[in-house]
Write a structure and sequence with these properties.
Number of helices: 9
Strand order of the largest sheet: 3-2-1-4-5-6-7-8
Order of helices and strands: EHEHEHEHEHEHHEEHH
Shape: globular
Radius of gyration: 21 Å
Largest sheet: 8 strands, mixed
Number of strands: 8
Strand content: 5-15%
Distance between the termini: 32 Å
Structural class: alpha/beta
Length: about 300
């Protein structure tokens, strides 16, 4: 066991498999006591079981670490609170939370059902809020702590995952709000957009560039949880981790503006708009046709 997170207590949601599991193991390997949360559902959110969380906790203990398994559903306020309460009851404090729980319900927006929308937003976005809500009060009283949300490059938009993309965009805004609101209390908040080989990436029909391993993401998350990241002033940021690449996303800002001496009319806007404000092209539009071609051919390059 190392000591990059020595004596810290970290809760990780979605920690039974994939990136969440890698994060839990990495935190324990760096000296943290870990609350391992996973409702244990399939990719689609069905068939819950606590076995996956328990297995990871036992794996940590077998390596000489300390861990506690919690199988609560993060999409409920009670579930988010119980994760935090477990950390306090077992270890007496909570220094970091990592919200990696997620499911997918893929459907074109014109066919998407209310349940498919609600379940994905509830798990990703509300599931991040419930844990942040419970943890932030504890961290405020401590005068320290780190909140980490998981987003995705799909926050730029998605062809058949409007629910997932909307939730992941919401996570970014939630993280930025937490960073602003909790800064004076010594609490940081950041967002990670992982690109790694997991059961959720296997069905993407277009090849994902720089597709790495969950352990690549876990190493960066450990850094964000550390005192070193706090010393470096890292808060309110969004990062992509893809294999050997770590990238920083820009903060939202205006690109161009136009001003009129007279009140705007539709015609005046039509005359001035193309050569002044114009557009900022969507990067994802260039990938849509390639994804459609790959899907039509039945290719699964990330499996």
């Amino acid at each position: 066991m190392a000591n990059f997170l020595n004596d810290k207590v970290v809760a990780v949601t979605g920690a039974g498999r994939g990136i969440g599991r890698a994060v839990a193991l990495a935190c324990a390997a760096e000296g943290a006591k870990v609350v391992v949360n996973d409702y244990g559902v399939s990719v689609a959110g069905d068939e819950p079981t606590s076995e996956v969380a328990t297995a990871v906790a036992k794996e940590i203990e077998a390596e000489g670490g300390e861990a506690t398994a919690v199988a609560d559903d993060v999409s409920t306020m009670v579930g988010g609170q119980r994760i935090v309460d477990t950390a306090l009851a077992r270890y007496g404090r909570l220094d970091g939370v990592v919200c990696g729980a997620g499911i997918l319900r893929e459907r074109m927006i014109f066919n998407m059902t209310e349940e498919e929308w609600d379940s994905v937003v509830a798990t990703h976005l509300k599931g991040t809020f419930t844990v942040f809500r419970a943890a932030s009060g504890v961290m405020r009283r401590q005068g320290s702590g780190t909140l980490i949300g998981f987003t995705s490059g799909n926050h730029q938009g998605s062809v058949a995952q409007a629910n997932y993309a909307a939730a992941k965009g919401g996570v970014i805004s939630l993280v930025r709000s937490a960073a602003l609101g909790l800064h004076k209390y010594g609490v940081t908040a950041n967002c990670v957009a992982p690109v790694a080989r997991t059961r959720m990436s296997a069905n993407v029909p277009m090849e994902l560039k720089d597709l790495g391993a969950p352990e690549d993401v876990a190493a960066f998350v450990v850094y964000l949880l550390s005192d070193q990241a706090r010393h470096d002033g890292v808060t309110g940021q969004v990062y992509t981790v893809a294999g050997r690449k770590i990238a920083l996303w820009a903060q939202p800002r205006e690109v161009r503006a136009a001003y009129a001496e007279e009140p705007w009319t539709p015609q005046r806007i039509a005359d001035l708009f193309p050569g002044t404000v114009g557009t900022d092209p969507m990067p994802m539009l260039g990938h849509v046709q390639a994804m459609a071609d790959a899907a039509a051919a039945g290719r699964r390059p990330n499996a």
